[in-house]
């Protein structure tokens, strides 16, 4: 992975974490145990510190940055969806930030809360625990059901599994020119979108 020191501050990655080779870590970035950082994610700790606590995942093309003297923290088992942007904020334990959502300065996403895809969490907003927020700007929509919180936990567990699978087997290769006979099947856990699970 491209990893850069600035002013002799070097990123830290726990050996049990997986950081994709195309992700970029700069400066004061701390990636904790069992974390996953996806392709093309950018964690720029050149102003403020960035901390991913145990089991957090930051998916592909996410951007994390912050102001000088302000930490940006993703708490234990925090789940940051594809393309999300976090800036000088805190995402607490077991919370989820949806795809392409933005969480701004000094906002706090409470434990087990969900920020909907494409939502804009304004600076200083306090998202209550176990609630769903959505919109531009984000507003509290309702409390989350036990089913929704369990679905989030299952999704995060699949990223814990992906961390282990990636450490064990992900490698750069040249693509094949045609589909081989008896093509292998991925060993990924069977997880459905929430809408599909409800239909079933």
Automatic annotation (TrEMBL):
<dbReference type="InterPro" id="IPR050484">
    <property type="entry name" value="Transf_Hexapept/Carb_Anhydrase"/>
</dbReference>
<protein>
    <submittedName>
        <fullName>Phenylacetic acid degradation protein</fullName>
    </submittedName>
</protein>
<dbReference type="InterPro" id="IPR011004">
    <property type="entry name" value="Trimer_LpxA-like_sf"/>
</dbReference>
